[in-house]
Amino acid sequence: MGSTQQILSVGPLGSVKAPRRPTRYRDLHGSDFTWAMAFVAPYVAVFLALVVHPVGYALWMASDPSLYTTLAQDPLYLPTIVNTLLFVGLGVNTKMFLALLLSGFFMRRQWWIRALLMIYVLPWLLATVQVFISFHWMLIGEQGLVDRVISALFGIDGPMWFNHRGLALGSNIVAYIWKWMPFWTLIFLAGRMAIPRDIYDAAEIDGATGPRRFVHVIWPLLAPLYLICTLLSTLWTFGDFATVYFVSSGAPVWSTEVLATLGFQYAFDDGLPALGVAATLSVIPVLIPVAIALMRKVQTSEAQL
Q: Is residue 258 part of a domain?
């Protein structure tokens, strides 16, 4: 006999009946099934109406190959792809690296650091549109706060931030980092706090302190979390619309547009919704390799732990 046994019930005339399943596993019948479907139906309807239908309709609108020929012929399209890659690449990686470093600073237990953390998260708590509009007016030129401060401190005129492509694109990236870095700092702070104190004590006994402790102890433990957060942030940032639209508004002369704002311009300013959807969805061939590469890196990091 094996190590597991089944208890069989004996019926009339010695017949053996199959064992009964526990009550908690019984199938839904009658009114139970009706009530279950009644609770599930609204969620299914919302999913179909707000997810399946919009995505399917967008894919159908962008299925015409001639749309992508039109995009390739537009002189704004290729510079917009470059802007998108720079905005996402520099913004996400700089934000994540600084957030990881600052999470270590906020691990300190002094009361003033805890108070500073409360102030630090305020940009993330503020409404997105209002934050980026404020950035726009601070950099608007001679009347902006930044140029006035430069003039008062150094006695020189500040640059015209939105008259130069590099400065305008840099302004978008800085505004994006300032807005979203506190959120990821809190994520990494929670990851650091989840590391058992015994590991820190053992590392200190072995002489791993300061940068050595970060390199040999903290980073290997936080690497999977860091890569997953980078993956999510990359996917979200490719669809970021508010930053560029409200900070630089594509200035100068639409030279700092990203795919999200270019698609909006096609759809609403030019009255070409299908072309706008095609411009937005054209980022998918870039997103898929990025997601696959980062997920493989996450699996490799987990296997090494």
A: yes
